[in-house]
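subagent[fold] <- orchestrator: predict structure for attached chain, return tokens only, no commentary.
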Amino acid sequence: MKDAARHGWRPSVLSALLLAAGAMAARAEPEPMPNAEIGATPAAGELAEWVKLDGFGTLGAYRSNDAVASMRPDARNANASLRDWRFDGDSQLSGQLTLNPNGPLRLVWQVLAKDDIVLHFRPRTEWLYLGWETSTPLSLRAGRLALPVFMLSETRNVAYALTNVRPYSSLYHLNPITKVDGLGAIWRHTLGPGELSLDAVHGRAKVDLTTGRIKARAITALAAQWRQGHWSLRLGRSEYQIDAQLPATLAQLQVLASGATGCANCASVLSARAPAQVRAVIDTGGFNLEQGAWTLSGEWMRRRSDSILVADANAWYAQLSRRMGAFTPFVGIGQTRFVEAPLGFQTVAGAPPAAQAANAAFDRFLQSANGRRSWQAGLRWDFAENLALKLHYEWLKNTQEIRLGQTGSVSYPAPPPIGSYRGPSWDGQLRVLSLNLDFVF
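subagent[fold] -> orchestrator:
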């Protein structure tokens, strides 16, 4: 499986196209109101033809119920809830400036202020690109663009556009890269009753996580979407060349390779299975179906790489909601399962049983066997124009390991031999209550 990922690398298939991540969002922007409707002067009207300013944000609060395992809404958040109310996970404020929004050539600049491991709430540029709407069905982009991996990639930070409080972590936390610096294009074509669109991107990116930094030297992605009436389907593939800069993990690997745990083959196994320069592939699929007041949506993904530093995994979720006037109740279920093969560590002859147990524990730990299932339920209340209040309850349950330690959107301390924690053990379950106020302006 890993060999297939290593030798099956074919970036040329996707590199033939360029990206237009963000074009989907651009198509969804409302047309400017006529000057007469807003009482604008002719000069103001001329300015509105050249400048468009949009904003969106969230005031969020969340609390987990466990004293051992903590939860953060996003693996890029600096802090996590450990049985306490936190207000920094989902809270954010963003603005988007578009120059010449109605012309064939436009400049889009989106600034995001959201909790981050390095920047915390300091504003940073999420998108900054020059777009060209050609006379053909092809649109071109160049600059910092959204990475079109998932159905919600273009609206991942616009919580008001979501029914629930945030994208499903069972799937979205497996690819924390949301933007790239590069080139892109989108092609659209009407076929009978529907529309086919192809989004592509090629560029580079980096992202800081709780475990270190992921630096992507090259990312190539392609997504195909079919829209017809009240339903849509989406298929995607993205390929990555990554430098995994994970200090704590790499230090553990060096200890194992040195033979300190009495491992006879760790050096050779880790050399083959844990290269820091990683090639990975993500395949995705998604659907959305609206039938009257009901909406059913879901996504699936498959991640494969040639290194245990980006462990093989499968994930999916499905969500059902129903609009009832200003209220929209929803329920959902999701699952992540890691499928990394055992490393096969061997202990030298005559080593004590503790050494054998340690090597077995490290073998399992490096498989990233932190799969889990999540159940969600909540209520969205659109109580005023451009304002939505959401109550969200989530129950998370680890379905693979609960004894070896984990760091990410869900974290719990590692006991010996992986770590030094000797406190109460975790039962593998976590419940999270969230209350968010989302707005656009």
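orchestrator: received. Logging for downstream: The first strand starts at residue 51 and ends at 64. The chain is about 15% helix and 45% strand.
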